[in-house]
Design a protein that fits this description.
Number of strands: 11
Protein name: protein-tyrosine-phosphatase
Membrane topology: Single-pass type I membrane protein
Domain Tyrosine-protein phosphatase: 24-261
Structural class: alpha/beta
Domain Tyrosine specific protein phosphatases: 179-252
Main location: membrane
Length: 299
């Protein structure tokens, strides 16, 4: 264990590693794992249904992750491989997912991090039994928002939140933009997607994935409880998937996000207090004017 890591981070690095991963280690499932050290635990892995008798596995490298409201609020998964794109969409369909959060680019530093799993243009594209169409795409400097429509015997709409300014094993340049991005995701979940898990992935599905999930949960906790338990929640995530919040820089960045949000809230409270003082000053002036007017009337 690296000695330079913060003591609090060192304390939960080994958490969960003794749990079984038998399904992930089956010979037929090993090629479905992007990395051999990021494997879902048996107790919390997402299981696919068998849609035909020839399917021999329910396996996908994906885990249910607890959130602020329930124990299956998110699904953390790896970026799909060329051979697992169909399984990825099958999971989206079966879990009735309404939001996908992608915090990697398909290619970074000349290396493939995630297979593109959506159509390159507006033409429909088939992924197994599912036909997917892009209904809209909005590009911003740090992210792209898409809306997908999937069809089999019924129609299903999925929002795609793609953050494009987050380097692998690193952190974004500042906290504000990621907090804003998280706000877009949270508003969607609360307005349309709370009944189903939100799928979150990067390349391995642990570092950037764990950081954005933790940020979403901790900001909810801060808003509702006026306190946060960063170490406790990272520990909890790692019981469901190994290496969640993978690097020291991601762990420190998560703390910085919370600190910056606290400072912003304090500034907003000061602004509200200043406005209240201004209101009270106006009330005093109105009262003084009313008193003077009454005296003039009596005279």
């Amino acid at each position: 264990m690296p000695s330079h890591l913060p003591t609090s981070m060192q304390s939960f690095i080994p958490v969960g590693v003794e749990q079984t991963r038998e399904a992930a280690l089956l010979p037929q499932n090993k090629p479905r794992n992007r990395f051999n050290n990021v494997l879902p635990y048996d107790w919390c892995r997402v299981k696919l249904s068998a849609s035909n008798p020839n399917e021999t596995s329910d396996y996908i490298n994906a885990c249910y992750i607890p959130g602020y409201n329930n124990n299956r609020e998110y699904i953390a998964t790896q970026g799909p491989l060329p051979s697992t794109v169909n399984e990825f969409w099958k999971m989206i369909w079966e879990q009735r997912v309404k939001g996908i959060v992608m915090v990697t680019n398909c290619t970074e530093g000349g290396r493939t991090k995630c297979e593109r799993y959506w159509p390159a243009d507006r033409k429909p594209c088939s992924y197994g039994e599912l036909v997917v169409t892009i209904r809209s795409e909005q590009r911003e400097p740090e992210w792209t928002l898409r809306e997908f429509r999937g069809n089999t015997s019924e129609e299903h709409t999925v929002r795609h939140f793609h953050f494009t300014a987050w380097p692998d094993h690193g952190v974004p340049q500042g906290t504000e933009i990621l907090i804003q991005f998280r706000g877009l995701v949270r508003r969607h979940i609360e307005s349309d997607g709370a009944e189903a898990p939100t799928v979150v992935h990067c390349s391995a599905g642990v570092g950037r994935t764990g950081t954005i999930i933790a940020l979403d949960v901790l900001l909810q906790q801060l808003e509702k409880e006026k306190a946060v338990g960063i170490n406790g929640f990272v520990h909890k995530m790692r019981l469901s998937r190994p290496h969640m919040v993978q690097t020291e820089s991601q762990y420190v960045f998560l703390h910085q996000c919370i600190m910056d949000r606290l400072q912003l809230d304090e500034k907003n409270e000061e602004h509200i207090y200043e406005n209240e003082e201004h209101i009270y000053e106006n009330e005093d002036m109105i009262y003084a004017n009313a008193t003077a007017l009454q005296m003039l009337t009596k005279a």
